[in-house]
Amino acid sequence: MGWKSAQKLIHHWKILRGDNVMIIRGKDKGETGLVKRVVRSQNRVIVEGKNLVKKHIKQGQGHEGGIFTVEAPLHVSNVQVVDPATGKPCKVGIKYLEDGSKVRVARGIGTSGSIIPRPEILKMRTTPRPTVVGPKDTPIDVVLEKTYDPTTGKGMPDL
């Protein structure tokens, strides 16, 4: 990747892994699918079962060679998130609800403006949180110890 393309990387991604997207350009135009993987370093996404290409793989130790069909990445400008209410492709906007929570909403002409839910796959952790206490973990009694009293100001360092 050259330095010119590095300048044009998307910093605030609106398409997430697990989103239902419609392909708007290319050989699979008009088809929908779930985003399998997001390649942020190249501004590309891989959609399940779409943009299939034949790949010639050489035989090596532990795997067989041959011609395989794999999903190639699509540029993020060639896909749009599907509006959950209308089923049409739409732009994604950010909105804050009354309780202060941040949600994604459908934007654009002919869209419903409904909330696009966050994909369930993002709520699952790939590595579970450790349940046993390690050597670098702080003991719970030290964590719960009260070290500052807001009424008297005790516990503040002398600056």
From TrEMBL:
Classification via InterPro entries: KOW, Rib_uL2_dom2, Ribosomal_uL24, Ribosomal_uL24_C, Ribosomal_uL24_CS, Ribosomal_uL24_KOW, Translation_prot_SH3-like_sf
Keywords annotated in UniProt: Ribonucleoprotein, Ribosomal protein
CDD domains: KOW_RPL26
Keyword Ribonucleoprotein: yes
PROSITE patterns, per database record: RIBOSOMAL_L24
Domain (KOW) ranges: 14-41
GO cellular component: ribonucleoprotein complex; ribosome
Keyword flag Metal-binding: no
Top-level lineage group: Eukaryota
Family of this protein: Belongs to the universal ribosomal protein uL24 family.
Protein name, UniProt field: 50S ribosomal protein L24-like
Taxonomic path: Eukaryota, Viridiplantae, Streptophyta, Embryophyta, Tracheophyta
